[in-house]
Amino acid sequence: MDQLFRFVTRPTGWPTKVLIRTDLGAASLIARQAPIVLSPNGHDSLLAQFLLESVTVGVFGGLLGGSAGIIAVVVVSAVNGGTPVLDLSLAAAAR
């Protein structure tokens, strides 16, 4: 599929029609989604969804990464016969 969307424009440059190529069987799904995506009034909800997903991924990624780092320090310390030392104030500040 070399071109998914093709915009047909007026001399002013604003699209008046959008032709969408789909794979076999996808037309009904695209027919329901395209008006929402291409609606000029739908951008606020898309922005809110993007921000919510970005914040959620960032928070969970940070928590997961921090937890993995702490676990790695404990495992490496245990393997090498050392005692892991964790300053809780630094761990709390890292969040």
Can you describe what's shown?
This protein has 95 residues and is mostly helical. Helices cover 59% and strands 12% of the residues. Strand 1 and strand 2 form a beta hairpin. The longest helix is centred in the middle third of the chain and has 37 residues, at 43-79. The radius of gyration is 25 Å and the shape is elongated. The model has no long low-confidence stretch (mean pLDDT 79).
Layout of helices and strands, plus pairs?
Layout: E1 5-9, E2 15-20, H1 27-38, H2 43-79, H3 88-94
Antiparallel strand pairs: 1-2
Mean pLDDT: 79
Number of separate strands: 2
In order across it, which strands form the biggest sheet? Answer: 1-2
Rg from alpha-carbon coordinates: 25 Å
**How does the major sheet shape up?**
2 strands, antiparallel
Low-confidence stretches: none
- The first-to-last residue Cα distance is 45 Å
Strand-pairing-aware structural class = mainly alpha
Question: What pattern of helices and strands is seen along the backbone?
Answer: EEHHH
Notable characteristics:
2 strands, two-stranded antiparallel ribbon, mainly alpha, elongated, single chain, 95 residues
In short:
The protein is mainly alpha-helical. The protein is built from 3 helices and 2 strands, in the order E-E-H-H-H. A hairpin with a 5-residue loop joins strand 1 and strand 2.
